[in-house]
């Protein structure tokens, strides 16, 4: 099933799952800067993340088209289990992982478990902001995201 590209005056839902409120705010500001009509939802724990996705399945047209998932949302093994569960239950959901972990093994694990992109977060706030701006530009303006989920 092919979906129509998002136009600047259209809105769609996006989901940010991170335990860091500063990252949440920065990502939200950047996404709204790229697409003012984007509707954002948030979770700060793996449990909230899964429950929100379950709730969204009942609201078919409100289901997010993009999930930004921070590896630091939980202890690393639990975060990997979260990614696996999301990929199994929501195969068309685009997932961008973020992490302060810059090891190649971490990136490899993210891609192996189904992330569409992995961003090694800079510890420098200005550089991290540039990364988030790039993320917003690419995923909201250039990429054609999957359509509504296949349940």
TrEMBL record:
Keywords, alphabetical: Phosphoprotein
Highest taxon listed in the record's lineage: Bacteria
Gene3D superfamilies recorded: 3.40.50.2300
Listed GO biological process terms: phosphorelay signal transduction system
Cross-referenced PROSITE patterns: RESPONSE_REGULATORY (PS50110)
InterPro entries linked: CheY-like_superfamily, Sig_transdc_resp-reg_receiver
Residues where 4-aspartylphosphate is found: 70
Response regulatory domain: residues covered: 13-136
Designated name of the protein: Response regulator
Source organism of this protein record: Spirosoma arboris
């Amino acid at each position: 099933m092919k979906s129509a590209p998002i136009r600047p005056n259209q809105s769609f839902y996006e989901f940010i799952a991170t335990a860091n409120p500063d990252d949440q705010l920065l990502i939200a500001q950047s996404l709204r800067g790229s697409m003012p009509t984007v509707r954002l939802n948030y979770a700060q724990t793996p449990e909230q993340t899964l429950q929100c996705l379950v709730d969204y399945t009942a609201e078919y047209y409100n289901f997010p088209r993009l999930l930004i998932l921070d590896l630091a949302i939980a202890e690393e093994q639990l975060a990997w289990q979260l990614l696996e569960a999301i990929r199994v239950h929501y195969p068309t959901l685009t997932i961008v992982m973020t992490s302060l972990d810059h090891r190649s093994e971490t990136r490899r694990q993210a891609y192996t478990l189904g992330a569409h992109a992995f961003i090694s977060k800079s510890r420098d706030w200005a550089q991290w902001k540039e990364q988030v701006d790039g993320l917003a530009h690419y995923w909201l303006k250039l990429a054609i995201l999957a359509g509504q989920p296949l349940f």
